Amino acid sequence: MEDQVCFGMEKRLRELDPDLHRRFTDTVLAAWNMLFRYKRYFPEYNDHSGLHSMGVIEYCNLLAGKDQILSLNADELYVLLMACCLHDAGMGISSEEFDLFAPRLDLEAYFRAEGEVPRDRIIRDFHQEFSALLIDRYAPFLDLPSPYHLFAVKQVVRGHRKADLFDAREFPSDFRVPGGSRICLPYLADEIDVTSLRSSDLLFDVESFESPDQIFYYKRTRACRKVEVTGDAVILHVRTEDPLVAEGLEAMRLKIQETLDLCREAVEKRTPFRVTQSRAELREIL
Where do the domains of the chain lie? Predict the structure, then answer.
């Protein structure tokens, strides 16, 4: 990783506002154990812990680049870092939290389409909403500086999955916090949306896999050895000799490309920022 962007957002926030930086680092420590709870429901999943969140932050640094990091104000940096840290918290909600939060979600259409669905699948499919509800519940503990920051963090968390980044009500491009600082929510939600698809860190317990689908998912993710972000591309460095895994990797690349295209368009049309990466590609490791 280039020196100028490695932990660039964190360093810039510390320079601009030491108090907001302290609040963020306190959240990292407080959330670390909570984020590992995803293993309760999803022992076969790739990493969704605090380590994954730190990886997402680094991908955000690389996607944004030095110049755009310097153009973000302290409130924008704080909101993006907080959202990166907490975006997958909903994957590890407790049974009590599920019973509390599920009635707040509009799931009627979901159940009509899917029929009877087990709890773990509901959590997976709506984990971004559960994450936002957790943040709301524990906001005093997380020490967010204002209700405006709370709203912004929740929206960026919700925006990393199944969100309409063109919705000006949900993702205003000129949202203001006390003191007048602007927070550009479409850009921040875009950053975490794109990066959420690209962590290839593995914390698998392969002996826990029970189905061919789980084994295939493991093999596909295992075949992606490295993710590189350049100024114009997201490059998945892969190694596989299995044709089925190769097909799965191409499907993953297409999904990343689709998300990247959507986010580029939203940022270009709704914000003063830009996503310079225009393509996702597979690169075979020899």
Answer: 8-210
